[in-house]
Every structure is written in C-alpha cells, then in structure tokens.
Amino acid sequence: MNDSTFLYRLFSLSARLRILLVGGTLLAISIQSPAQDSPSKKPESQHGPNILWLIGENIGLDLGCYGEKNVHTPNLDRLAAEGVRFSNAFCTAPVCASSRSAFFVGMYQTSTDTQNMRSHRDDAFRLPEGVRPITHRLQEIGYHTANIRTIDDKPVGTGKLDLNFVNEGAIYQSENWTALKSKQPFFAVVNSHEVEYDIYDRKSHEKERVEWVGEREHVAYATPENVTPPPYYPDHPLVREEWARFLNSISGMDLRIGWVLDKLRADGLEDDTIIVFFADNGRLDANGIHWCTDSGLRVPLIVRWPKNFPAPKDCAPGSLDERLVSLIDVTATTLDFARVPKPMLMQGRVLFGELTEPPRSYVFAARDRIDETYQRIRSVHDSRYHYIRTISTGPTFASLNRYKEKCFPVMPLMRRLYAEGKLDAAARSLMERVGPCEELYDLQSDSHEITNLADSNRPEHHDALLRLRAALDTWMIETGDRGWIREPESIIAPFTPEMDAWFGTPDWAK
C-alpha cells in the first residue's frame, strides 16, 4: 500500500478517532461514535417540507438586499425580506467543481480528495466510506430529487453537476419540474445560467471578446458611468465596462429566478417549500474566482421558510444573520430540514432549530490545482480578520491561467499597464505577489483587502496573525488536508493542450 492510499483510508477512521499532532507529538485523542449512516435509522416521519436550492454562479454580496445599487434583483430581495439573509457565508473553495464537491456532501473537499478542479472524471475514484451525496441521503427517506433545466420551455437552469466524483451512481432522479407536484416531498435544485462567461462551445480562442451568458438580453441597469469597480483595479474604461456587464448579469440571474418562484407559487407548492439561495463560489472577478480572497470566497445566502413549515422563533422575516457560515453548513441544515440526523462524518453544522450547533469561530477555505494552473493556498476568516497562506511557489495573481487570460479583459490590460509602469500601488501589488507568502487583512477597515498586515508591528495585528495561523494549522491537521499530495504529472499535463485549444495561449507565455 502506498502512502497516498494509506492516508486516504486513514481519513475514514479519523472522524471516529481524532488525533491532534503538533510537531509530531501526540497531544490528544477523542473517540466519536460511528456515523449514523444506516438506512434503518430513519427520521420519525418521512413527510417533511419540500426543499428548493437556487444556486447562483460566481457572485458575492452583489444583490440589492445586500446594498448593491446598480443591480435589479427584486425576486431575491423579496426572498430576503421574507426570510433570513446571511452576511458572513463562505464557500470552501473559490471555484465551482471543488466547492460543489464539498457542499454536495457536507465535507471539505480537502478531506475527501476532491480539491483539484475537474479531477477524478475518468478514473475509478469513490468517495470515502460514509460520505455520500445529499441527494442519496434524501432519496433514502422518500424525497424525490430533481435537477431542473426548464420550466414551461423557459431555460431556468443549466443542469450543472461539476462534481469531482462520478462513480456514486445517478445523482438526481429527474429533470422534470412538472413531476414535482405529484412527488412530494421533493428536493429540487436550479443551477442558474448566470453569472458566467459563455465558454461552453469551447471556441473561446476564436473570439475577440468572450461574452457573458445572456449578455445580449441583459438590461443595462449598470453602466460604465455608474459603477465603482474594486480599487485593486486600474481606473480604466475597459474595467468599468466589464464590471457593468458583471452586475447586469446578476440582474439577468434574478429574472430567471423570478420565473422559478412564480411557477412555484402558481403550482401551489410555495406554502410547503423551504427555499435556499446561495452562490457556488465568490465573484467572477479576476481577483475573486480562483483565489482565496474575500471576493473569491464570500457568497450570498438566503433562507426562506414556507407558511406550512414556519421558521424557528429566532428567525424573523427580513432579519440579518451575522454568524460565520460555511457552505457545507447548508448541507447539514438541509438534512435537518428533512429530519435526517446529521451523519457523524459530516463536517457541516446545523444552523437552525432544536439541533442548532454552536456558531463557528472560524471558516476555512482552500485552493489547489485549477485546470493547468497549480497553486496551493489556504484561508481562514474570523469575524474581523482574514488570513491567507500561499504554500506553493511562484506568481499568484499574475500566474498563467488561459481561461482567465482570455475571458477577463483586465488581465492583459494589467499586464500591459504594469510593463508601462502605469499601475497604482494596489494593482501593482497584485501583479508582484509571489508565493510562498502570508497575508492578513482587517475586513472592518479594509473590505477590499488592499493593505497586507502580516508584517504589521501593531500588537492587535500580530495577535490576530498568530491566532489565525494556529487555527489554520489545526484545521489542516484535524480535517486530513490532502492538498500536500500533488497529482502525478501525467494527470496535470493534458490540461495544458486542452486549455490552449479552448482559450488559446497569450503571446507572453509562448
């Protein structure tokens, strides 16, 4: 048995026998009871509420209900007014496949060996023993599961899976909205078309500019004249144009979500359906998606309870919840909505009701290989500070990723302005950042993460740095972070020609 196989098998045991090692010394052992995974352990009633996940693509707190002025999001704003809105929810990875592979099972992707983007698509990989897709757990107690694409011939969802596990059997039972009324209780998911670049024809390399999905139909609520892009970008017309397109794509997403909510009401399902809206990862922003920045990790989260399954007493309509939340908590909480006991292996926490678990002091995230680009980065937020540790070597923001070079106009723009010496300090810092390195930001005073406090002499900054370092070290050990096991070159190498054929290679990288 090789080291990788041994560690992988050890993971299944580690949830029951938790061992904390520091410097190679055994400090503590705690025994947990076996996971409650037996099919015989069903909830008392199989008739719980319907549950609808509405998953947005690649956005942060960019909705009207969160204060964004240059979007039109009446449907999600109404959902927030009728439910609970979270301001400190975070994905576990700043990219779709790794994040989805985590929240679909309620486990960190770094614990289940699903941390690398588009991994295990053509091998025999199976999830660790006791780790299962949420749909399978719900189907087992009588829920009908559906991944919705169309409603009355309107394209409301992509049917996206994008999971780094493909050998667990069928994930959903149908794509048919019309079947839901007769198959209650149901768990349905709508994966929004927006916010995304229109890349899936795989002809991006042929295009002068890659458009956004639905761009030609989006109403221009945001314009280059009324938007304020983040200050880590140069103040340039191209940046303003692209930021306006990003915000207009969010308005387009809300329009499609409105179609879903209207149909839910028209079909008489609204009063029995808990609705959960969240994004799979942070902003589609060159300094957001793919990076463990606040922009890449912070996501919207809204929960609304129906008339026939009212909210817990402490969840008043229109309230703001400031607890630290990980998207894997949505998994555990969804199971609790359906009265499914949370399995012991599951790392997510229940957020509401009688089985509410203690609030998190920290939320963690990780980035590993994405397409042809290898980076190993880890992150921890507390209620104020954000600590980022880049473990890999070489450029970070300025590293080559062909998707980003082609789709994000700001990348070639910043390379040109950097070469001409025309970037300000914030943008220049992004271009010059290399790993290994540490970053620490005070989000109360620096929400865009401009000023790195890792070398600050102020006692409060030094204390925060030491505390978050220790929290991250502990998390990596306790959760069995597998990112240190790098994929063989035979797996990584084919991504380079694939990405070149899809997006092309910039001249500077040839």
If you average the pLDDT, what whole number results? 92
Profile the largest sheet.
8 strands, mixed
End-to-end gap: 41 Å
Q: What quaternary form is this? A: single chain
Layout of secondary structure:
Layout: H1 3-14, E1 17-22, E2 25-31, E3 50-56, H2 74-82, E4 84-90, H3 96-103, H4 109-112, H5 134-140, E5 144-148, E6 150-151, E7 154-155, E8 186-191, H6 237-266, E9 273-279, H7 294-297, E10 298-304, E11 319-321, E12 325-326, H8 327-337, E13 363-367, E14 377-381, E15 385-395, H9 402-407, H10 410-419, H11 425-432, E16 434-442, H12 459-478, H13 489-492, H14 495-503
Parallel strand pairs: 3-8, 3-9, 4-11, 4-12, 5-8
Antiparallel strand pairs: 1-2, 4-10, 6-7, 9-10, 13-14, 14-15, 15-16
Throw out a few tags for this protein.
8-stranded mixed β-sheet, alpha/beta, globular, 510 residues, disordered N terminus, 4-stranded antiparallel β-sheet, Alkaline Phosphatase, subunit A, 16 strands, 14 helices
Structural features, described:
With 510 residues, the chain is an alpha/beta fold. The protein has one domain (49-509): Alkaline Phosphatase, subunit A (3-Layer(aba) Sandwich). It contains 14 helices and 16 strands. The protein has helices spanning 3-14, 74-82, 96-103, 109-112, 134-140, 237-266, 294-297, 327-337, 402-407, 410-419, 425-432, 459-478, 489-492, 495-503, and strands at 17-22, 25-31, 50-56, 84-90, 144-148, 150-151, 154-155, 186-191, 273-279, 298-304, 319-321, 325-326, 363-367, 377-381, 385-395, 434-442. Strands 3, 4, 5, 8, 9, 10, 11 and 12 form an eight-stranded mixed β-sheet that branches. A four-stranded antiparallel β-sheet has the order 13-14-15-16, with helices on one face. It starts with a helix and ends in a 7-residue tail after the last helix.
